[in-house]
Amino acid sequence: MKDASLETRYRERLRDFPSPGCGRHKALLGASNLGIMSGVSLERIHSDLQTVTAFSPMPGREIQAAILKAAADHPTGGSYRPPPKPAPLIRNGNSALRRIIDQGRISDEAGLWEASPYRLTEKVETDPVTFLTILFKPDEWVYIGGGKETIGRLKRAQGDAA
C-alpha cells in the first residue's frame, strides 16, 4: 500500500540529495526508510539512489547496506538482491553506427542525419549547445570531466550565485 505523502517526501529527499561530505550516508538511510515506508519497491529504491549519486557515485555495497537496514527496520515481507551491474549498451561507437547503417535504408552518416528527428543545423560552434538542450531539461545537470578540484569550484560558484 502506497502512502502519497511519504512518497512525496521520498521524491523530495532524492531531489535534494546532498553532495559528498555533506551528510550523504545519513541521507542514504533516510531516503531508504522513506522509500520503504511509502511502498516503493526495494529494487526501485536501489535504482533511484544510484541515479541521484551518479555525479559522485557511492559504492553499491553502501547503498545495499542502507536499504537492508531500512528494510529490517520496516519489514515489508519481501526479499531484496541488488541488481547486477549492467553491461554498456554501446561498446564501440563506430561499429554501432555501422550496424545501424547496415540494418536500414541509411547508407552513410548523412542519411543518418536526415533520418534524425533533431537536426544540428547551427554553426559548428553552437551544435553542442543545441545537442545538450535537446537531450536534457533546463534544470538537469550534466557533468563533463574534471576532477575534484573542478567539482569544488562548481560548488563554490553555486554558493556565490545563491
Give a description of the structure.
- By secondary structure, the chain is an all-alpha fold.
- 57% of the residues lie in helices and 0% in strands.
- Helix 3 packs across helix 4.
- The longest helix has 14 residues, at 24-37.
- It starts with a helix and ends with a helix.
- The model has no long low-confidence stretch (mean pLDDT 76).
Overall mean confidence score, pLDDT: 76
> Which sequence of SSEs, written as H and E, runs from N to C?
HHHHHHHH
Q: Radius of gyration, Cα only, in angstroms?
A: 21 Å
**Helix count from the secondary structure assignment:** 8
Q: Report the major sheet.
A: none
Structural class: mainly alpha
Taken from the alpha-carbon principal axes, the silhouette is extended
Strand count: 0
How many domains? The number is: 3
Q: Low-confidence runs (pLDDT<50, min 5 residues)?
A: none
Fraction of residues in H or I helices = 55-70%
Query: Approximately what portion of the residues adopt beta-strand conformation?
Result: under 5%
Please report the distance between the alpha carbons of the first and last residues.
40 Å
